[in-house]
């Protein structure tokens, strides 16, 4: 079966479920670059309600709470924004916020294909830490906050790592403003390498923060979900990144 045929079959299966139940829930396990997440498909088509996405919980819980939220929509109870909702998680509140349109394509690829590339609205379901702090609260547990990106706003930094984490780069990139053409997310320790397309002498190696690299080249945000053990290469600044397992480029 070709990739095109497989994609067509997957979309047909999703459509069958949407037609039968009113929505479909797609969910994805955490990997070495991104937390687990899931989202609905079909709510916009069937009920003119934004699709729902959430992050950072076990996938079986994600499926359960998205189904619970979608059921409310089906029953004629639109999800209210920026108010605590106790109907989704037992004894704990959740809140819904509108997803900034530019962030949809980063996570909701199957939904985009389902809607044939046409835009659709989405809301993000946020949950709290044990002290009922949301990820935007300064007092929120750091691990909880990192697992829930704030998709309700334009993001200048998309990586699920601290902004200050050290990365390896070179003088040619930082001082001479050469473009980053080779990126490696180390399989052993998760360190990032942002390098030019040519060999780098030992004396030219530099260490800067991940945030500094993104500020130097905002297109590096496109690699926020590059798993450990993979590389990304391009021919010139602005070119499309090609991803592969480390070693495949040789």
UniProtKB/TrEMBL annotation:
This is DUF4262 domain-containing protein. It comes from Chitinophaga defluvii. The lineage of its organism: Bacteria, Pseudomonadati, Bacteroidota, Chitinophagia, Chitinophagales.
